[in-house]
Amino acid sequence: MDTKAAGYRRKVNTINRFVTALQRVGLAFGPMELLTVPGRRSGEPRTFPLAVLKVQGEQYLIQAFPKAAWVANIRAAGAGTLSRGRRSRRVRFLEVPVAERGPVLREVVASGPPSVGKRYVTTGLAESPTPDGVAAAAARIAVFRIEAAG
Predict the structure, then answer these.
(1) pTM for the model
(2) Nearest-10 Cα torsion for 53, 35, 2, 138
(3) Is 18 helix (H, G, I), strand (E, B) or coil?
(4) What's the CA gap between 104 and 85, in Å, rounded?
(5) How would you classify residue 43: left for phi > 0, otherwise alpha for psi between -120 and 50, otherwise beta?
(6) What is the model's pLDDT at position 78?
(7) Sign of CA dihedral 90, 48, 33, 100
(8) What's the pLDDT score for residue 4?
(9) Whole-angstrom Cα distance, residue 25 to residue 90?
(10) pLDDT at 16 over 80
(11) Closest by CA position to 81, among listed 72, 68, 70
(12) Dihedrals φ, ψ of 76, to 5°?
């Protein structure tokens, strides 16, 4: 990760601690929810604030940083808890195949503010901040569809 991306990551980590604290006391805002999954090595619960994004009636978690720990934990666990304010729900995560990620990524960038596409460039996951540019990076960006746990 280059210096610019590392600085951006530090800022995001600081904001994430603040968002997590607000969510835990019941203050929810934007699309943010707290993801809690077992750690892939320790088995201990790990919590991450993430944006739950809606695309064509489905809910998704989308990776914004290379080597994000929550991605590896979801792949290992397959299920977890999403909390928003004081409400929580058990869910399953289904990783979207690379061939099907492009349309989801394209829609997320096209429907969001310009900063959405730029984030993928800043973190080194995409070459271009455009909807097509981010969609072209689908092999480097993990996308998980959220389903109710049965």
Answers:
(1) 0.83
(2) -40
(3) helix
(4) 26
(5) left
(6) 94
(7) negative
(8) 63
(9) 19
(10) no
(11) 70
(12) -75, -40
- For residue range 34-48, what is the model confidence (pLDDT) as tens digits? 999 999 998 899 988
Which H or E run contains 49? strand 45-51
- Please report, to the nearest 10 degrees, the dihedral formed by the alpha carbons of residues 32, 63, 71, 51 taken in order: 10
Q: How far apart are CA 17 and CA 49, in angstroms?
A: 8
In one letter, which amino acid is 85? G
Mean pLDDT value across residues 127-148 = 96
Q: Which residues contact 89 (CB under 8 A, 6 or more apart)?
A: 81, 82, 83, 148, 149
CB 141 within 8 A of CB 101: yes
* pLDDT exceeds 80 at position 19: no
Q: Which two tokens stand for residue 35?
A: 């993801």
Structure tokens at 88: 């929580």
User: What is the Cα–Cα distance from 60 to 50, expressed in whole angstroms?
Assistant: 10
What are the structure tokens assigned to 55, written together? Answer: 């695309």
Residue 67: band (very low, low, confident or very high) from pLDDT cuts 50, 70, 90: confident
Query: Residue 29's pLDDT is what?
Result: 67
Q: Which two tokens stand for residue 36?
A: 């809690």
